[in-house]
Specification:
alpha/beta
Length: 337
């Protein structure tokens, strides 16, 4: 959050407030602190090219191509539809990244490739959701035999890897942990994301989840968004060390800008004092429409919105180095690529 993101309300100045599926236009006490998202950074002009550069010059390891050879067993795991919110507009960045990875694997003669949605303990994605996320070409080539969702309840589909020094059980998707190479594709949607979290929560079973998704662990965390003060992340770090001792992991992670909404709803991301006459008219029309619609239809409207998020950087390589780079980018201490 930058200084430009914090403003004090003025006397008689109404502000918009989201109230469920409705919008309110209310005055708040003078001098109230109003927090606005920073202005969106420009997205990468060519995500495919940026991905190629990242996997050819990764952090902390050899280029991806140098790690591949015919006959290898490779699994690509990707974040499910729980991130981001609202969902991406087409094409989803995961489609571009996965397509680029598949092309690289094919060039190196790797044919034993599975794609797994990292659903963790959440519901499985539907075929339609998988098609929309990864694109028709990938879906038709891999589904259903080689494109599927993690199943935390499948006893035969998961494998025990070991325990941390604190006794936490590490049990993950069997296909992933028996691969010669596991490639993780993840979205750094918030400071809580990234690092070992994608694999340890996306491919886990309840035997592992109970050590970090519990009241004691979560309440002991000073901040979920600051890994250094998070008991939650400490557990994931210990589990990740067990995983990386047993498995070769290559990660591809992207950061996003703050353009949450599509352009036609961009007035909802502006400061009220910057509104033009058109912005004010749009706000009032949206307020009126949301009041008139039944709650079910209003919820359906907001749920149908696709975000305007743009990818601002792609990092690839070993988990630790990639996470450090992502944190550096978010704090402005490292240039994106």
């Amino acid at each position: 959050m930058t200084e430009d993101s914090v403003h004090l309300s003025k006397r008689g100045q109404p502000i918009r407030l989201h109230s469920g599926e409705r919008l309110r236009w209310e005055e708040v006490p003078e001098g109230s602190r109003l927090l606005y998202a920073p202005q969106p950074l420009a997205p990468l002009p060519d995500l495919r090219l940026a991905t190629q550069k990242a996997i050819e010059a990764p952090l902390g390891c050899e280029p991806l191509g140098a790690q591949l050879s015919p006959g290898m067993k490779v699994t690509i795991v990707f974040d499910d539809i729980s991130v981001p919110l609202p969902p991406f507009a087409d094409p989803d960045p995961r489609q571009v990244i996965v397509e680029t990875l598949i092309e690289t694997l094919a060039e190196k003669g790797v044919t034993d490739v599975d794609l797994i949605a990292a659903t963790g303990l959440r519901r499985k994605m539907t075929p339609g959701e998988l098609r929309r996320m990864l694109g028709t070409a990938v879906f038709d080539s891999f589904y259903p035999d080689r494109l599927h969702c993690h199943d935390a309840e499948d006893a035969d589909g998961n494998q025990y890897l070991g325990k941390t020094d604190e006794g936490e059980v590490v049990e993950l998707n069997r296909r992933a942990v028996t691969s010669d190479l596991l490639i993780s594709v993840s979205i750094a949607f918030s400071a809580m994301d990234g690092g070992h979290k994608s694999i340890q929560t996306g491919l886990m079973t309840y035997r592992s989840a109970r050590f970090h998704h519990n009241v004691e662990c979560l309440m002991a965390s000073g901040s979920y968004m600051d890994p250094a003060r998070s008991s939650f992340h400490e557990v994931l770090e210990r589990m990740g060390e067990v995983t990386t001792r047993n498995l070769n992991v290559f990660t591809v992670e992207v950061t996003l800008n703050t353009r949450t909404l599509p352009s036609w709803l961009s007035f909802l991301e502006k400061r009220e004092e910057d509104y033009s006459l058109v912005d004010s008219l749009r706000l009032q029309l949206t307020r009126a429409g949301s009041r008139l619609l039944p709650a079910s239809l209003a919820g359906r409207f907001w749920g149908s919105i696709r975000s305007g998020y743009g990818v601002t950087s792609v990092q690839a390589g070993r988990i630790k180095e990639v996470q450090e780079a992502i944190v550096g980018i978010s704090t402005g201490s490292r240039r994106s690529r």
